[in-house]
Amino acid sequence: MSETEKQKQSQDLLEQLSEKMKLLSEYQSKLNQAKTGLEKYQSLQHETTSEKLKSITKEQHQSENIQVEISDVKLLKPVSSLLHGYYLDRPKQGEIFHQHTIKLVGWVVSKNSPAVEVEIINNGQVVQTASIKKKRPDVAKVYPQVAHAKTSGFATEIQLISLPQESELTLQVILKDKSRVPFGSLKLHSKYHKSIGVIYEESKHLEAKKPHNKYSQVSNVPLDSEVEIISIHVPKTAGTTFRDLLIQVYGKEKVFNDYKKQPVSEVLLEIESQNIRAIHGHFKVQKYDDYFLEAKRIIWLREPIKRLISNYWHQITHFQNRKITQNEVELEKKNFLNWANRNELRNYQSSYFIEKNIEDFWFVGITEFLEEDLKELQIMLGWQQLEITYQNQHKYSKVYQYLVKTFLSDGELIEEIKFINSKDIKLYEMALTLREKRIKTKINRVSGGT
Fold this sequence. Notes:
The protein is of the alpha/beta class. The chain has twelve helices and 14 strands.
């Protein structure tokens, strides 16, 4: 390529680059204009929103403190020939919501055509829908022959802002074949609270007068149920013995054994359908927090060190199937300490009290005073004379008693166990204090004292 051709090619490239730079400058200018326009629009929107916020009326402000009561809940009977059954977990009659929405939770099991959606209707208009697709293993157990029973659940929050203060909502299910089947209705009554200051002052006054028991307060989820007792079984606190007493009182078929760590949603239907009277098992305090509000919460606690030793012995003799002789007890101390140091075993009794206080229980029994406390509980509940049968007594009891004595006499070992279980020690002391107060109250009542 000659020198002249090279110069011409370079000139062409420069001209092309110049054109592209010119275009880029135009694009940048348009982009800046668009950015300026967007900023003006956002500013205008902000001003408009601010003006709207300023114009909120007093009545609208008070609606922040709305109270919605579910005055009536009806499920249609008999069940339609197109459906196997249906149920509403929430809301329940008498339930109160302090917000502009109410929770609707339940299930529908159809026969031939699967149920796909629930319509919520007010004055002939559909105000909301809820898809039927949530997993309901509890329902599947009741209808094992129906494949879609596994996903028969629905849940939604019904918006109330556009509804009148007195409203009736009709619930109907839409089937896959487009059939519509009404199955229930809700009646709502909405009202506004007084001003926040008045509410606060009145709530302080009422709080001072009522007993300190969270389970006596109104909750969002009462269940119509016959459950009278909710008993939490902390391992090695005579829980099996207490369960047998519950069976004596209510019958085996009316005591629900909650030992499988199932979510509450999976057991509610079984509890309700079988008219269970007592729930007993290894579960955390808060599991049934929102359910069975009239039921009496009961728990048994034990001196932490002795409970831990008892639990250890149960582990090695029952689960590991080991047989220890008295000559081996001294050597077992190190194994016990290593086992007790596991995170999941430290302060084990306290782990049942997540976000709860011991005062929240209707009755706290002490294992060391088992017979005395059972007699007191029997009188409080109006139970007939019961036969106490001690269950889960340890294998090789003579060696076990020797092991307990040996471990407890080792001051260094016990101090270390106390240190890693300080919360349990404090909890047990609180339980003893509660028991003393209960006994003094009973003595004063009998003697006519104050």
